[in-house]
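Entry 14: structure prediction run for N-acetylmuramidase domain-containing protein. Input pasted below.
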Amino acid sequence: MPSLHIAYSVGMAGVNIGSDIKAVQIALNTILALTPLAPTSIFSATGSPIQPLVIDGFLGAHLDNSKTVAAIKLFQSNVVGLANPNGKIEPNDATHRKINTTLAAAYATPYQLPRVQSSAPPTAQDYNDIAQTLGCEVAAIKAVAQVECSGEAYFSNGRPKILFEAHIFSRLTQHRYDISQPTISSRSWNPALYTGGNAEYYRLEQALALDPLAALQSASWGRFQIMGFNYQACGYRTVQAFVQDMFCSETKQLEAFVGFIKYNSLDIYLQNKDWSRFARGYNGPGYAENKYDIKIRAAYKTFSRESA
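Run finished. Output tokens:
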């Protein structure tokens, strides 16, 4: 179970060593993501949850404007109960201890994957609506879906298709499990670790027992195989909410896809059928190795003929 370890003070008038700052940022982000109420601990004055902190080990040149310091103050005010939060964490002070007890409470109840739900597949109208939102052809959307997830969006047992990425889990957990759990935590990408099919859930469940937040973010989900760590780009505040919708219906998966495409400004490439640039933005710079652009182009031609 993760806990916050710092050697020196962090925040206003703190020593502010980079590794300590990064540890605080990770801890506050973990609390924000794992606590179901988000938590009432880290809410802004307007009642809206703050955005996760950038984990960079820096507070900025002006601490009065630091988002990390602001998050510390909110935590001190709303969780620790300090009347005059000072925006500073000392090793083993009340704020430090409360962060660790909050983390412990968040991890005390094991995360349970959502229940399998039965739902109708998207209708032709659903696809038309999504295409209109993105300003592209239905055939373009179906082409991406076909290449990302050939066949159905769900396994035969009703769970959404996933692929668990050990190198992502390793990175998100700071390589803590590379030695003890080499089949689910690897410093580099290793395709030999994939088990394929529903067996990927056994790998996911192993990771969930170690670090639920990192585990959910380390799998690609559903029809469009969107990585869990992209939950915010898809319009979700937590990765748990994202996963819930992946289980809910393929229509919800379509909606998440739209959010991801719009967030990353990839709709223009779908509109122009610029498959190389789309594949680079969607799958990363290594897209050419797997010929994603060529596959999407071919799938698009097939779906275009069917709709003609």
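Notes: The chain has two domains: 10-108, 124-307. Will compare against the previous run tomorrow.
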